[in-house]
Amino acid sequence: MVSSSRDWFSDLWFSAPRLMGGLMSGTSLDGIDAAVVEFYRNGDNHAMRLKSSIALDFPPAVAETLKAMTKATNIDKAESVSIIDVSTVHTGLSHLYAEAVRKACVQAGVAVNALEAVGMHGQTVWHQPTGVGFGETTVRSTLQLGSPSILANLLGVPVVGDFRAADMALGGQAAPLAPMFDYHFLRKADENVIALNLGGIANITIIPAGASEERVIAFDTGPSNLLIDASTLKFFGKRYDTGGSIGAAGRVLSRFMEALKDEPYITLPPPKSTGRELFNKEFLEKALEYTYFDAQPAEDVVRTVTEYTAWSVAENIRRFAVENNFIDNSLHTRIIAGGGGTNNPCLMDALRRELPDMTVETTDAYGIPADGKEAIFFGYLAYRTLGGLHGNLPSVTGASRKAVLGSISIP
Amino acid sequence: MVSSSRDWFSDLWFSAPRLMGGLMSGTSLDGIDAAVVEFYRNGDNHAMRLKSSIALDFPPAVAETLKAMTKATNIDKAESVSIIDVSTVHTGLSHLYAEAVRKACVQAGVAVNALEAVGMHGQTVWHQPTGVGFGETTVRSTLQLGSPSILANLLGVPVVGDFRAADMALGGQAAPLAPMFDYHFLRKADENVIALNLGGIANITIIPAGASEERVIAFDTGPSNLLIDASTLKFFGKRYDTGGSIGAAGRVLSRFMEALKDEPYITLPPPKSTGRELFNKEFLEKALEYTYFDAQPAEDVVRTVTEYTAWSVAENIRRFAVENNFIDNSLHTRIIAGGGGTNNPCLMDALRRELPDMTVETTDAYGIPADGKEAIFFGYLAYRTLGGLHGNLPSVTGASRKAVLGSISIP
């Protein structure tokens, strides 16, 4: 609960530590990450103390509904969904988010109403940074399901949500948003830092040594778990390559790899963003066509996809950080990875081989659990919004200006 | 613009008149109503000065998309929609809303940034006050498209939206919400007032003479323009019965009328709410089956539907205001009507014949344009939310408590 309603949108907000909840459910569609974190001002910087970080699987039927809703491959082949499902998921996710926050509070040993507020990303079901027809005009859009107002009233705690809309309204790509967190919690004065998130999609934040906020760039490099998961599901009926063991047992299929590398997104210059609408099952099927034959071990497909994923991350770093001298190449560069993909040693090892001169580590080294980084981050974005601070980096998203992100619901 | 961010959520908010925008697009799916209104505190009451009230038709392609999206008849027969359409409409409506607010500001002779905030209802595409399956549980939901955050950033003005979610999270029906406005701006000490809104759906607010807020009840009585429009479209290819002239040329078909009256919703005791998911083209078709023959004049269908609409309103008033002595029957009762249906004299005359002892007038008599009442009302709800006042009436919706409604987006 806010100690006084007068604190809102004022410097007073930053005068005391604030206990925040954070919620993320990503494009992997596997479940919800929740965190309880205390944020506070430390000189000119923000600092944090993590109280808890948990994960909650979606009930299978919910995961299925979400997968059906989001499996469109492109504008012309959008899947049909029921508007009732959209309405039900929008509210229903808030009920699951409430459960996740309660669980995170139990683990943190705090009462739910001890939270000042919760930052809720919602579930992206469509991201359309290029215009599509709407009446006499075209419209760029992004859609996250999950209602902040429902969650606020279920928890009795203010909720900030719908973080992406503002940036898109201002001409930005509305993604990625994590760079604000990366900049404030991972930057270094004497080393280049590349914060890497290995969620459904992989994205990087490039922070040259000692850079100001305005110099940071970030973008989606391409697939991360989305394609690996799609390949294990197709060939092994498994939702993930647990511990990277399937990939580790396979070898790279060179023709299949070439087909994957045909996708032009990877080498497109930033700013750029992508999602499940490009890197999905159909993308995998198309690359497999004429390049994979049933006699070949299925492990080879998973390995190739894993190596492709590592390559796509590394290729973006080589082109848009190193070769163009965006970072100071005389200084050491540290890749700090978060996201579920950090649990896949086959992927992490491939990345280290791709970028031998750089240190590849995980956010765990900085007290930020690699699996729960995004949940912490949306708690941080809510902390900024309630303090009246912008949450986007126009240098990253291409928006016309900084914006206080999200909408605020008071229970 | 807010004069100071510190005013938010405090009594200071009410210390000065606040110039608000209001936006509504109703279940008729014909377009957007926008208003600019100054609200202020007048003793213990709220008062208003209307600055402008305008209507904007949807571009035909948008109206078609919305109609396709919402024409489901029930849970088992939900229409399929594209998730891209949902995403595009969610953002695209905000662009149209921005245009409507700008137009209303021009008519009011004020700059857009002179508005303190805008209250935006959004477009209801589904309303599901009974539970449907979601994972291992059931969920009640309501879905309004249109993003407050997008609109706030397009206008550069704070926007309050998503007014219905909170009440539903608290166990309420999330409808109707207009009674809060009716109570504050139409109540009388010495007469019973029944505020009637003739939008797509008809709803009434019953305010016994001198009643406290807690005694007010309100509910959807059944169809209003939805069925009349469906009948003119089917038989005459016209979106409305302009001036009620088609209905006026017809006669009541008694068997068809009986089929319409078979619908049990009309006599169901309140609280209750309904929408396009019940009173739609399929409802009309079903009632026509076996009761209407091509040789009969099509005007008779429109007349019968018009009389049925008036009857359904009156029957609810007779049962749930008069016969149960909810109002003081020794005092005069005044029906104050708003909504597009007030432009249909065939409907209004039918209502006067149904309720001969009551006065039937329109909100125009109180300085509130009958066509623009709901837009004004959502400006008022935003005014309440920003002052930290509840916007729902638990006696009306069945919610477990009063709630500050909506989510707030700051540009």
Q: Which structural traits does this protein have?
A:
homodimer, 2 domains, Nucleotidyltransferase, domain 5, 13 helices, alpha/beta, disordered N terminus, 411 residues
Summary of the model, kept short:
Two copies of one chain form a homodimer. In chain A, 35% of the residues lie in helices and 24% in strands.
Structure, described:
2 copies of one chain form a homodimer. With 411 residues, the first copy, chain A, is an alpha/beta fold. The first copy, chain A, folds into 2 domains: 5-175 and 371-409, ATPase, nucleotide binding domain (Nucleotidyltransferase, domain 5, 2-Layer Sandwich); 179-366, 2-Layer Sandwich (Nucleotidyltransferase, domain 5), CATH 3.30.420.40. Chain A is built from 13 helices and 13 strands. Chain A has helices at residues 60-70, 83-108, 148-155, 165-169, 179-186, 225-236, 245-248, 254-261, 281-288, 298-322, 345-354, 373-386, 394-397, and strands at residues 18-25, 31-42, 45-57, 80-82, 117-134, 137-145, 159-161, 192-198, 201-207, 217-223, 333-338, 359-362, 407-409. The longest helix of chain A has 26 residues, at 83-108. The radius of gyration of chain A is 21 Å and the shape is globular. Strand 4 (80-82) of chain A pairs antiparallel with strand 4 (80-82) of chain B.
